[in-house]
What we know:
By secondary structure, this protein is α/β, with parallel strands linked by helices. 59% of the residues lie in helices and 9% in strands. The longest helix is centred in the last third of the chain and has 22 residues, at 239-260.
Amino acid sequence: MIIFLYGADTFRSREKLKSLKDRFIREVDRSGLNLIELDGEKAGINDINKAIATQSFLSSKRMVVIRNILKATKNLQNEVLELLKKGKFREAKEDSPKVGSSGRADNILVFRDEAADKRGGLFKYLSGSKFKEEFQVLANNDLVKWIERRVEVKGGKISRQNAYFLASKSDGNLWALSGEIDKLLAGRKSKEIEKENIEQSYLVKLDDNIFNLTDAVGSNNKKLALKLINEQLEAGVNEIYLLTMIVRQFRILLQVKAELEKGISPQAAYAGGQANNRAIASELGLHPFVIQKAIPQASKYSLDQLKKIYNRLLEVDVRLKLGESGKTLLELFVVEI
């Protein structure tokens, strides 16, 4: 049997994988000896074949977890594809452990990957499995509901309005949100998260600083923009995360500007307020609060300017991931735009 977990939301896919492993140990193999994990980027075809082909030890089944196989070379992906087809693992049923030859289909194969090229042969094969789940980045009501559930699980309380407020300050990064919720609840006699608590949180302060940064760029205040970038880096904000937040804000501005160019003036949208905000928010899949803040800022740019800035940021992202200095790249971005 093949289980395929994939998508950009690595937080929820990791939690799903953990629940599968916990269930396997609880219901199938309390020793944990038949649970094998491999990194698909580092393992070779022989490692994967050995893990899959080995029969379970003192257990009815064996679970093999393979992470990031879709980040491996095309050659390895093709080899794994042929291996899976030959073993007919996708055809094995959960209630029929004796499918296939040599007991190989007794194994439960779990593949966990982030966003991947959906055109590849291995992806198409894995996504044809009965047991698959895509984890997309949560937004809007889905993100709000996740925040409410997370706070409840952690023994706390949060109103729907405050959950919306916290969601509006997030790019859907559940890793950051989960950590922030833990901090908001830590050491508090009252387990209710109030708006005043959220306003003092790291996520809100960072979001406000990013807003001020993009505002400074829009006003051509390079000195202030450089100051804000350096303040964040000196405060210990990760360079990649900082860039991600900047990209997010400019993507929002680009989307909002494109909507405004369809016929709604910034003045009408900002002053005519809630109906237009909700219409744009619904179209873009964003919170109305985010739209309300973005409209006056987007009016400082032309659509072409925002497209150029966004493309420039994507270039910075590539160079940063290739190992160049994040501080230097971000400073050059501000100076050169």
